Amino acid sequence: xxxxxxxxxxxGEGSDQGILCLKGPLTAxxxxxxxxxxxxxxxxxxxxxxxxxxxxxxAGLGSLVSAYVTGHKAGRRMALSGVxxxxxxxxxxxxxxxLFLIFPTAEIAxxxxxxxxxx
Length: 119
Description:
- By secondary structure, this protein is α/β, with parallel strands linked by helices.
- The protein has a single domain (6-111), classed as STAS domain (Transcription Regulator spoIIAA).
- Helix content is 37%, strand content 24%.
- It is built from 4 helices and 5 strands.
- Strands 1-2-3-4-5 form a 5-stranded mixed sheet, sandwiched between helices.
- The mean pLDDT is 91.
């Protein structure tokens, strides 16, 4: 049985910041909720909260990198927060961690983007 992936959207303090909270693994079997949420996102800064993501498979990583590339071309920034050791290790092994700003929590990411002169 496939584990579900839920994506919930929150707006940040600035009207141009969005947080997508993912709950569940990001895998080939459940990419649709993630891809649909990313397609709908119009904020200039998107924070993906991975606090409740236990693991990501290769298809999930591919979708994440694709979302980054598409957003980057459109002038959007993307950051990750709450990334656990397992997911961080995947990003390191695949040399994709440098694509993303990674923060311990979504709150810290929001604070950083709310005060860019201090970042």
